[in-house]
Design a protein that fits this description.
The chain is α+β, with helices and mostly antiparallel strands and about 300 residues long. It has 9 helices and 6 strands; from the N terminus they run αβαααβββββααααα. The longest helix has about 35 residues.
Length: about 300
């Protein structure tokens, strides 16, 4: 039981540490994004930070589950105890964070001020796909003159950049990062979509929320079978991360609007739309657990002296 107690403590520390770290990264990203706006924003609202941090809860859940299962396997904790502990603790921690984020979203906190001037000088060049903009005045002047270069078109001089609706034409931010999306950006995008689904299910009520979170957590935990594939814990961990990436992609795919409508029509309304994906995940987890149980029986029967 000492190893099991350490396993529970590991989970209890891993979840908040990962969440606080991820949310801290989100805050720094929001600060950099606000400082890179032209002209610079005066502050960051709490709602902007929460919206940018939608990816942090699924990120924490996925990594905590796989790290905890890896820890339990390495310390010879019985699989039923690992499955029960991870399922219960992950459900409680996920609900607690969802409740906290929901309460934080209802607050009317003042924006966090950014004490920094607008970046750049006259002649600053900004770009977005298909458009290059050269600022002829100070970047802090939103109505300053510009030269706009569009693909396959002549240069356009804008003495006062006002659109047809009378509003000032917005500028792209300072390019702190590349314009091409990498693998990490795609993963964070999927995590953000997963976080939006979690928030939406929480707002819908306890039944949609717990049916979704329990099905997802059970599937992730049941896939701990991957740690029996080899005798190398690090190799199993990387295989588990790849497998969890596949679960995340499947989650985003099944929760897309078009797929949800198709599955609802395919089942002829046998299940409400909000319960279709949880039913699929629960079925997959049952199949994996059944296979794991049969594998355990086969190994037990293969032992010497067992008939």
């Amino acid at each position: 039981m000492k190893n099991y107690a350490r396993f529970l403590i590991f989970f209890g520390l891993c979840f908040p540490i990962l969440f606080i770290t991820a949310f801290g990264i989100t805050f720094l990203y929001a600060w950099v994004d606000a400082a890179g706006q032209i002209p610079a924003k005066n502050g960051i609202s709490l709602d902007e930070i929460l919206q940018a941090g939608r990816w942090t809860l699924p990120f924490t859940l996925y990594l905590t589950v796989i790290f905890s299962i890896n820890h339990g396997r390495r310390h010879k904790v019985a699989w039923p105890l690992i499955f029960t502990g991870v399922t219960v603790l992950a459900s409680l921690f996920t609900f607690g964070v969802s409740k906290g984020l929901s309460n934080a979203g209802a607050l009317r906190a003042p924006p966090l001020e950014i004490e920094r001037g607008t970046l750049g000088r006259p002649g600053l060049i900004l770009s977005r796909p298909g458009t290059v903009i050269s600022l002829l005045d100070r970047p802090s002047n939103p109505t300053g003159s510009r030269v706009v270069a569009l693909d396959d078109r002549d240069l356009i001089y804008q003495k006062k950049p006002v659109g047809a609706d009378g509003e000032i034409i917005s500028l792209p931010p300072v390019p702190f990062r590349g314009a091409h999306a990498g693998l990490l950006t795609l993963i964070i995008g999927d995590l953000a979509q997963s976080g939006r689904v979690l928030a939406a299910r929480f707002d819908e009520g306890p039944v949609p929320y717990f049916s979704w979170t329990l099905a997802l957590i059970m599937l992730l935990t049941s896939l701990g079978l991957v740690f029996e594939l080899s005798h190398w814990p690090l190799a199993n961990l990387f295989l588990g991360l790849l497998l969890f990436r596949g679960v995340l992609a499947l989650e985003v795919f099944l929760n897309s609007d078009g797929m949800t409508e198709y599955l609802y029509e395919f089942t002829r309304g046998a299940l409400p739309p909000d319960l279709i994906t949880p039913a699929i995940f629960a079925s997959l987890s049952v199949l994996v657990l059944t296979y794991s149980f049969l594998l355990f029986l086969s190994r037990l029967l293969d032992k010497p002296g067992t008939k």
